[in-house]
Amino acid sequence: MAALTTGRLLVPRRLSAAGPGTPAAPAATGPGLWLVDTTEYRTYAAGQAPGTLDALELARAAEFVRAADRDGYVCAHVALRRLLGAYLGIRARDVVVERAPCAHCDEPHGRPVVPGGTLHFSLSHCDGLSLLAFAVTPVGVDVEPVPDAAAVAESVDVLHPREAAELAALPAGERPAAFTRVWTRKEAYLKGTGVGLAADPSMDYVGAGPVPASPPGWTLDDVLAPEGHHAALALADPPDDR
After folding, report:
1. What pLDDT does 239 receive?
2. pLDDT tens digit string along 101-116?
3. Residue-wise over 106-123: b if at least 16 C-beta within 10 A, else e?
């Protein structure tokens, strides 16, 4: 299975580098995937933030001590609002983002959602990059840099026993990339379910090999990412397919 590709959100008057206009609806094209490069987008995003982000987002941005963290947050959330506005046919500043009920306690601090439930989205960011996904069923994404071998050795116990065995069977030099591959699949799936890392990540098997193992009711795909990174998408099957 080929890895999914993304659009790129770079310039003020266009929603992708490929051409102008509103992005095609996820229902018609499958999930919409967008990659934001902080270096290329930060100047525009900083100028748009005061009129695009809400008061809570602006306050959160101001709390970051490191400029790189602040830039990444602002870029990701300006991009999110621009794309939600384009998909919903409203101005970015008018987009309302709420919290779904928590999967554990039903209090309103679950995953971010837009009212109505007709459009689902997910956002992931690491240093310099953000990945956004939009779909008509619940969706999760994750993007991560490939860690060094020492970090992998310290983290392998968070994997499912079968995934850990698959990792151990690989040559040592291939393990960091394989670990990142399995971890992004796992985190995308857990974000899609709304549970996130409150769940034990070792309980779900998503596979460390070249082809993801999709949990029941979900489809996992790897997403093409810049060199030194891995990314993945988890998409809930339509209700009739479950």
Report:
1. 79
2. 666 566 555 678 888 8
3. eeeebbebbeeeebbbbb
Contact by Cβ (8 Å): 223, 125: no
Given this model, what pLDDT does residue 195 score?
77
For the entire predicted model, the pTM comes to 0.86
> What does the pLDDT look like over 10-40, one tens digit per residue?
433 333 333 334 566 665 557 888 999 988 8
Instruction: State the SS3 of the chain.
Output: CCCECCEECCCCCCCECCECCCCCCHHHHCCEEEEEEHHHHHHHHHHHHHHHCCHHHHHHHHHCCCHHHHHHHHHHHHHHHHHHHHHHCCCHHHCCCEECCCCCCCCCCCCEECCCCCCEEEEEEECCEEEEEEECCCEEEEEEECCCHHHHHHHHHHCCHHHHHHHHCCCHHHHHHHHHHHHHHHHHHHHHHCCHHHCCHHHCCCCCCCCCCCCCCEEEEEECCCCCEEEEEEEECCHHHC
Q: What's the Cα-to-Cα distance from 211 to each of 163, 182, 214, rounded to whole Å?
A: 13, 10, 9
**Which residue in 146, 133, 132 sits closest to 37, CA to CA?**
132
For residue 136 the two structure tokens come to 């008509």
Residue 116's pLDDT is what? 82
Q: Which residues pair with 125 in a beta bridge?
A: 130
Instruction: Give, rounded to a whole angstrom, the gap between the first and last alpha carbons of the chain.
Output: 21
